[in-house]
Write the structure tokens for this entry.
Amino acid sequence: MASITLQEVEKRFGETAALRPTDLEIRDHEFLVLVGPSGSGKTTLLRLIAGLETLTGGEIYFGDQRVTDVDVGDRDIAMVFQNYGLYPHMSVFGNMAFGLRRRRMDRAAITDKVQEAARLLRIEHLLERKPRQLSGGQRQRVALGRAIVRDPAVFLLDEPLSNLDAHLRVQMRAEILKVHRAVTATAVYVTHDQVEAMTMGDRIAVMSDGVIQQVGTPDDLYDHPVNRFVAGFIGTPSMGFVECAREPGEPDLLTGTGVRLRLPAERVAALPAKAERVSVGVRPERLTPTGRGDAESASCTIEGVVEVVEPLGSEQHVLVAVGEQTVTAKGPREEHFEIGEKVVFALDPGHLHIFDAESGEALT
Amino acid sequence: MTTVTDTDTAAPARTYRTRRRLPIARAVVIVVVALFAVWTLWPLYWMLSTSLKTSREATSLTPTVWPHSLDGSHYTGLFTGSLPFTNYFVNSIFTSLVSALVAVLISTLAGYSFSRGGYRLNGALSLAVLATQMLPLVVLIAPLYLLLLKAHLLNTYLGLVIGYTSFGIPFGAWMMKGFFDGVPREIEEAARVDGYSRFGILFRVVIPLSVPGLVTTGVFVFMNTWNNLLYPLTLINSDQKQTLPPGLLQSFSGTFKTDWGGMMAASIVTSLPLVIAFFLVQRSMVRGLTAGALAGT
């Protein structure tokens, strides 16, 4: 078992920076999720930890041991690939035993280890089959099994659920967490799906443009995003943003098309004096319809026109055009909305996220 | 209700007509295919038929389609007469097999290197190897002759194998490259994570997944060398080491007389190893030649 330390780790492909100099500390036994859109550098970072890519700069440590120049086969890692990476010409048993044979373990010990992993993943009955005779979910279990039989210090998973259907994905999320608890290795999990990240990670590192934007627990990221990118990426439906300006002579009032937000004193004090134009973010569940008439009494309101209503059974999402921007409100499906209807939402100022309009950095 | 029922019962009547080929079109296809089969198989039949005729019937001015009587003397004569046919046959088998094996081995390593790259001159080197295929064998034979002369390898099996493999390897390397390109990199990376070296991965993972490619390359090189006339004719000058194509040409075709019956019998025997090899590996070869044509194959 090992912690992982990245110091100024950098990767360039020619002139293109896939990963800008990055520091990251992954704790022993931790399940860290790297999440971000395509091209954000998350897979590159994972492959650098694995040793499948060479670093352009920086150092990597597993515990106290420097592994920057250590070959991938000697790093004591196991990896689960996006397309499983199973050996098509070998049986399930052969796939799981392949790495152990390289370590020259005796045959009985190999059989025991494979059987044990197969039991954990409930694939004992598949051991004689070839990968082509398995379903997607079964292949994924075999790939997990191949990784855990080796008792690795570090467990790396590269979008392992992206080829599965939605139902199976939910099931396999639980399986992977169960496996992680069983092997207690330090795990790094790459995904572009923020729901996976939120539900699985002890901590999450949100990446964009080859840079880690923020590292924190799921609640940290959700409640205290450090910038507009993280705020918009984490959460389903996404946070809505409206552009506002501070009213001259009224430092506690932010206004924009359809937006009127009067901030409490402590939030005004936290705003930099020169922040005249800001972007205000609102989580969909914080938008409460005012009941058509209470708008005057609310200190913070957003007014717009209903564009789309998405009923989801237990709840509904309402997309509302506020000036040029669109925000999403999430609420009980009993509330009725008409397309084209004018609606006013009241907001608790404590739940507003205020970002610099230019840089996107969080201001309070 | 009635309307609905009517609509429901009417629906099956509107089934789409399946596209069926017209009987005339079908007949035309059969005739064309049959003509093509006759066109292709006729020379083979003529070869077999002539080999079973007597020498007089084979050279008769009024050719016969069916032999009047079956005569096997041309076949027995191949192995019992003064002609060193067995020598030619064994030499051909030996040099073709060795050339195919050497070519497959080197092509595998070269093709893997071309496919996985990772070094500066990979693209240029692989194109240079491909470019050698543009040169006709006749152009290469003179320099090859001089090289082998200086190396004292003229009139040796080794010299002949070197000559054969010199044109088999470029073709084989590119064919194997195509195969290795189709092996997903993730599988190799999984083997790297499992602790295997480059050679371990090549021999335990990549090659077992590329058996059709190996077979295809081997059979192609074998066929090309088996049929090659120019190289042994130029590089070998003794009956003891001569192979079938030049041996047959020199033995049956003279200035004043050609032994058609003997030549055809020898041609039939010469074709047999290729036919057998082809039938044994045809399934692999078809898979080999079409590999990578579809995603996921």
About this structure: The CA atoms of residues 3 and 64 of chain A lie 8 Å apart. Chain A is about 25% helix and 35% strand.
